[in-house]
């Protein structure tokens, strides 16, 4: 609601408790409760001249702060179990997360919060085989997001940008690049090789050379 005209209209409704129909000229009294939500810092928006200060204080009567999912990761496994039950009832099947998959979703930051988690699990259930969902069934961005989190926490090497030695920087880049590409293709070597322009055998040799392993098993055979 960055449009100042719209903000002025909303403020007028809140102050006067009246509205006018589109094209009308008569004010119509209304008795409503307004619930508003935003992911933006409205005080910063006010300082930037993008949000009316009077509207902000008119809306800010009772506030509820909802922390992002990454702020309470201890709830992720329980939420995942609930969502899998809901998806299973609709799809007519059951599925549960393997231990490595649980660890992966708990490390991901979930910028899309609960909605992203719910949709990711639905996608994973659709593409999974059998009644267990592993890391290979999770969306590529979730698996790749795990490596980003590890990099920032110091648990995993970066992509080589900060390295002075060219050979080590090249090796780190290849590991990060190939791991991401494999995850995006659900660790299917043939599809990954075709996408990045390598022969399947060449990619398999490179994976062995770099020691890249699929979580829980070797990513060297096609599925």
Characterization of the model:
By secondary structure, this protein is mainly alpha-helical. It folds into 3 domains: 4-59, no CATH class; 67-147, Helicase, Ruva Protein, domain 3 (Orthogonal Bundle), CATH 1.10.8.60; 157-223, Homeodomain-like (Arc Repressor Mutant, subunit A, Orthogonal Bundle), CATH 1.10.10.60. It is 53% helix and 4% strand. It contains 10 helices and 4 strands; from the N terminus they run H-E-E-H-H-H-E-H-H-E-H-H-H-H. It has helices at 4-16, 42-47, 53-59, 76-91, 99-107, 113-127, 140-153, 166-184, 189-196, 200-210, and strands at residues 18-19, 28-29, 96-97, 132-133. The strands form 2 sheets. It has a two-stranded antiparallel sheet with strand order 1-2. Strands 3-4 form a two-stranded parallel ribbon. The longest helix has 19 residues, at 166-184. It is elongated.
What's this entry about, in short?
By secondary structure, the chain is mainly α. Helix content is 53%, strand content 4%.
**CATH architectural name of the largest domain:** Orthogonal Bundle
- β content, as a range? under 5%
Strand order of the largest sheet: 1-2
Task: Give the SSE order as H and E letters.
Answer: HEEHHHEHHEHHHH
Structural class determined from secondary elements: mainly alpha
Shape: elongated
**What's the CATH C level of the largest domain?**
Mainly Alpha
> pLDDT average, as an integer?
84
Q: Could you please say which CATH topology of the largest domain applies here? A: Helicase, Ruva Protein, domain 3
């Amino acid at each position: 609601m960055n449009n100042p005209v719209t903000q002025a209209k909303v403020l007028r409704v809140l102050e006067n408790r009246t509205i006018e129909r589109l094209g009308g000229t008569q004010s119509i009294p209304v008795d409503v409760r307004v619930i508003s939500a935003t992911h933006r810092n409205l005080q910063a928006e006010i300082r930037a001249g993008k949000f009316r200060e009077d509207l902000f204080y008119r809306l800010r009567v009772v506030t509820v702060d909802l922390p992002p999912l990454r702020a309470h990761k201890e709830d992720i496994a329980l939420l995942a179990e609930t969502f899998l039950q809901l998806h299973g009832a609709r799809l007519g099947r059951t599925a549960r997360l393997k231990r490595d998959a649980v660890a992966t979703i708990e490390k991901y930051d979930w910028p899309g919060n609960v909605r992203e988690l719910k949709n990711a699990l639905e996608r994973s259930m659709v593409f999974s085989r059998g009644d267990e969902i592993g890391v290979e069934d999770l969306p590529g961005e979730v698996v790749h997001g795990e490596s980003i989190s590890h990099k920032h926490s110091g648990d995993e090497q970066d992509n080589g940008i900060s390295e002075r030695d060219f050979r080590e920087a090249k090796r780190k880049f290849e590991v990060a690049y190939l791991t991401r590409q494999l995850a995006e293709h659900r660790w299917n070597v043939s599809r990954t090789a075709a996408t990045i322009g390598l022969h399947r055998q060449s990619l398999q040799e490179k994976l062995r050379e770099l020691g890249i392993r699929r979580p829980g098993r070797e990513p060297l055979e096609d599925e």
